[in-house]
Amino acid sequence: MADHHAVRKRSRPRPRRLAAALVLVGALLLGVAACNGTQDSTGGDETRKVTIGLVTKTETNPFFVTMRKAAADAAKKNGAELIALAGKFDGDNEGQVAAVESLIARDVQGILITPSNTTGILGAIAQARRQGILVIALDSATDPENAVNATYATDNTKAGRLQGAYVRAALADRAPQLVMLDGTEGSSVSRQRHDGFLEGFRITDDSPAIRGRANTNGDRNLAQTATENLLQRTTDVNSVYTINEPVADGASAAIDARGLTRRVTIGTIDGGCDGVRAVRAGKYAATVMQFPVRMAEQGVAAVTEFAESGKMPSGFTDTGTELITDKPVRGLKSHDTDWGLQRCWG
User: Fold this and answer.
1) Residue 161 has pLDDT above 50, yes or no
2) 3-state secondary structure the chain
3) Cβ atoms of residues 253 and 224 within 8 Å
4) How do beta strands 150-153 and 110-113 pair?
5) CA angle 4-74-315, nearest 5°?
6) What is the crossing angle of helices 156-170 and 188-201, to 10°?
7) Which band of pLDDT confidence, cut at 50, 70 and 90, is reported for residue 12?
8) What is the mean pLDDT of residues 131-141?
9) Which residues are CB-contacts of 38 (< 8 A; sequence separation ≥ 6)?
10) Apex CA 344: angle with CA 341 and CA 346, to 5°?
11) Which of 138, 207, 249, 258 is deepest in the core (most CB within 10 A)?
């Protein structure tokens, strides 16, 4: 068992502990990963254990479940405590704002956040930073990016570009007939992946090759329903863009029910172990792997170092992307599903 890292209490303005924020501590505590004990002092009046807050978009998306576990494990290894909160759904900016406010009231040293609304969360982030709390974005950059101290995330435009280039190449000489299943309206991640895909696919947003589109909030069930509705209008489809693997899974179910699996190429982004297995099974053709464990571990390490030495991280750190498919195409570097299953969400 790792020793607790004791840090000297820094002098900083005390947050206003509003009654509403304190009530929301209980209401928003959707997932708490507490590592070794409580927030009490570990060494008298002048020292206390490092406490880190994690605010994800949801607590149900497998990507964020993996990130939360990795953050909890990293905190435990570093002798710190993790308080994990989440929005109720992808796009729940109010829930994330309240979560940040409750973490400020709990006097954490650092907050790791995957912002659902990259502008709507800025006020809460600014409030935390005024209190001397280190704030790091994971997975999704804020807008502007320098609203936080640092970002550890996927280059989402690059991920979209890889997906688009692969799907277009997989069509070979067939004219594209594309359905686009986006994430949450107003989300920077959704916009970046969407734009990157179009760039890689070599079409513009007003192209007649796009036969249908829908927002899915990154949710499997919404994606399945949206795809079913789009296929009622036309089955003249041979390719599908999906924002993430839950959406790809929903789209795949709807396409399979129509008997269109063999003629439709689905691409996606995430690279979770279930997603890699879905590629192997032929449910979708390729996935672009991300690395949420890296994001979580690097974020926890940065907060721990800040609490101990005052050193602040800065800038954007690209945590990596890799194309996974068992049907490689010329001109695109990729790895097969054996490689993917050995490294999925590492």
Assistant:
1) yes
2) CCCCCEEECCCCCCCCCCHHHHHHHHHHCCCCCCCCCCCCCCCCCCEEECEEEEEECCCCCHHHHHHHHHHHHHHHHCCCEEEEEECCCCCCHHHHHHHHHHHHHCCCCEEEECCCCCCCCHHHHHHHHHCCCEEEEECCCCCCHHHCCEEEECCHHHHHHHHHHHHHHHCCCCCCCEEEEECCCCCHHHHHHHHHHHHHHCCCCCCCCEEEEEECCCCHHHHHHHHHHHHHHCCCCCEEEECCHHHHHHHHHHHHHCCCHHHCEEEEEECCHHHHHHHHHCCCCEEEECCHHHHHHHHHHHHHHHHHHCCCCCEEEECCCEEECCCCCCCCCCECHHHHHHHCCC
3) yes
4) unpaired
5) 110
6) 40
7) low
8) 96
9) 81
10) 135
11) 138
Domain ranges of the chain: 6-153+292-313, 156-289+323-343
Paired tokens of 261: 């699996």
How many whole angstroms from its chain centre is CA 54? 12
Domain 156-289+323-343 classification at class level: alpha beta
Q: Tell me: the pLDDT tens digits for 26-84?
A: 444 444 444 333 334 334 445 678 999 999 999 988 999 999 999 999 999 999 999 99
User: Do residues 322 and 271 lie in contact, with contact meaning Cβ atoms separated by under 8 Å?
Assistant: yes
Token pair, residue 65, equals: 């479940």
Kind and range of the H or E run holding 111: strand 110-113
Contact 36/1 with Cβ under 8 angstroms? yes
**pTM, whole model, 2 decimals?**
0.83
Residue at token pair 């172990």: 273
| CATH class for the region spanning 6-153+292-313 | alpha beta
Side chain identity at 290, as an amino acid letter? Answer: Q
Do 6-153+292-313 and 156-289+323-343 share a fold? yes
- How many Cβ atoms are within 10 Å of 320's Cβ, its own excluded? 16
In one-letter notation, the amino acid at residue 285 is A
